[in-house]
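Quick check before the chapter quiz. The format below is the same one you will see on the exam, so make sure you can read both the input and the output lines.
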Amino acid sequence: MRVQPVSSPASIISTGLRWALLAVGIGGAFLPFWWMLRTAVGPPQSVLGLSSNLIPSEVGFAAFPRAFDAADLGRALVTGAGVSIVIMLLQLATAIPAAYAFGCLRFRGRTALFAVVLATLLVPPQITAIPNYVTISALGLADTRAGLVLPFMTNAAGIFLLRQYMSTIPVALLEAARMDGLGIWRTLRAVVLPLSMPAVATVATFSFLLSFNEYLWPLLVARSPDIATPPLALVNLVSASGGFPDFAQLSAAALIVSIPTLVVFILAQRRLAAGITGTGVGAEG
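Here is the expected output.
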């Protein structure tokens, strides 16, 4: 009969402190979302009252259809999802071969080229926004969906993450594939890509979330309400108020806009964990 070890008081206190800190962190992260929900379903403008509390005195959902119609969220959600999916596919189409080359192939200048890719991560996107805008305008693609997509055709962070994951695939496995007659592209398609699906799913998820929530570039390019993305739709809703905004309506619109990102994150959370913490199928030989 095994005797269970008795936890010491210090261990119990340490565990309790960890759980308490975790609960405080979760509560602090969830509080803004709860306050947004409370504002959306509570009485109009009650959020500004001195007697406001975490639980509204009345619950109603009239703000949701008003926000959906006033901000034209249906069109904005379709536009945002479509643009984000196209950007995600283009980034995967460019990042996967680049990561495969940097992680699994041997060629002269590989390290220097990869350093250049990493160096682009140090450049803030605000710096490249104006040159990109000038280029897109010169091509006649301003105020078009193509103009929203083209500057984001590749992603250095995605290349880095995929390269780190692919570099853990054993060299012996790649050499065995080549000995079996598989070329470079067939090795990528038949061996490397299936083993790297957790990292691919992680890059795809982050790409969609970042593109869907992008604000600066659509603000510069999307002048027409017809191609407004969800963040722009929220800004237009505030501007249309002509003064003091309806916070219940604005919170309802923000909740509607956040639903796609929450759904994507929930569906991909296991892949995200595997892609971030995983190390492929073994150490590089």
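If your answer matched, good. Confidence is low (pLDDT under 50) at residues 279-285.
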